[in-house]
Every structure is written in structure tokens, then in C-alpha cells.
């Protein structure tokens, strides 16, 4: 973890709450934001995973706290938001999918769980931080969607695609309703990234394929770029992919 080199882009004194902070894109976002001086608060279901990420942040000289919760628990989100205090940056990277995802195989309970985690959890976290952001007339929200939220892709499945397509609409609504309050939202839509979620695919990609994908650190650095942009600037949507984009080359 390296220190930020530009004092006018530092996040020193800011608090960043990262949902899904125990692994993958959330963990990488936490490390990138902490490297720029932010105090990061990590939330997710697995306390051991959160503590491992926090330990890495602290070992590198950053500040990190953990608040374990399940993003489908609205009361737990509200309680954590109150305990954390004012949040300057919200990063929602929680997401899930299932192997049996085609319309003919998808179970209704799996659909409900995916909607709760990928979409409803994002809404509840946004609603939990908005009052304090409004009070300070400032706040940055980054919701990590997916390439599947930008273009339809057969491997994603109906529930994942539906929820990820809804997230840009949520971010645009935030910008419409809250921009005059100094609050901005970005929907970040990365293509394939080499994280554990790939293991839920019916046919997980090989190590060689994963090496050509975006890495978690690529997304983490992009989140840092978004959150350190001048306050007059709103990056409404950002789509990113590896140079070897499987969604273009797949036959």
C-alpha cells in the first residue's frame, strides 16, 4: 500500500464504509482508499475475512474497523451506520450469484436472495448514509455493478443481470435527487474480474483465463480515482474491461 502523492487528492480525515469489504473488489477498494488516508470501515458476513483485510490495512499504516453484518438485514445496516458515524464515502461491492442461473433452472429462493444482496442491500445502505451526507452537503457513493449491468451476457443469468441493470438506475436517481445536496454517485461496471465469484459459474474459468482478466486491484484503484475526483465532478457511470475482453472474443 503506497501513500497518496498529491495532497489535494488525499482522503485523510474521510471515512469510507465498504460493504463486501472482506474479499475481492471490496477488499481491494478498502486497501486503495486507506492508502490515500481514509479510515475504512469494513462490513460483510464473515468476521474472519473482514479482520484479515483490516490487518493488512493496519500493517500498511492505514486505519480500519470492522462491522459484521448481512446486507439483507436492514436493521443491522441502520445500526452499523449509527455506530460508524458520518460516512464520507460509501462503496457497495456486495454481490452474489448462483450456479443454477438459467431461467429453466433458477430457483425462486435464489432469485429472492440475489435481489436482496445485489439490489435491495445497496438501497438500504444508501438510505442509511444519506441523512449525514445531506447534513454536511457532501458525499460520494460508488456502487459496483458489472458488465452485465451494461450489456446482456448469457453467462450472467436472469437474476444477476436484472439486479445489475437496476444499479445504474439507482445511481442516476441519487444524482438526480441529491446532486444539489453535494452528493454524487457512480455506477462502476467492470467486466470479468478474477475474484471468487467466478467459482459460482457453471463452468469456472481456468487459471490462465483468470490471469487475463481484470484484477481486484484494478477495480480498487478505479474506486480511489472516482472518490478523489474534484467535488465539482460526478462520474455517473464507468465501464471497464480487460484488454482481452472475453465478452467480445467469445464465440
UniProtKB/TrEMBL annotation:
Molecular function via GO: oxidoreductase activity
Keywords for the protein's UniProt record, in alphabetical order: Oxidoreductase
SUPFAM superfamilies, per the entry: NAD(P)-binding Rossmann-fold domains
Entries under Pfam families matching the protein: adh_short
A GO CC term attached to the entry: membrane
Entry's family note: Belongs to the short-chain dehydrogenases/reductases (SDR) family.
Name of the protein in its database record: NADP-dependent 3-hydroxy acid dehydrogenase YdfG
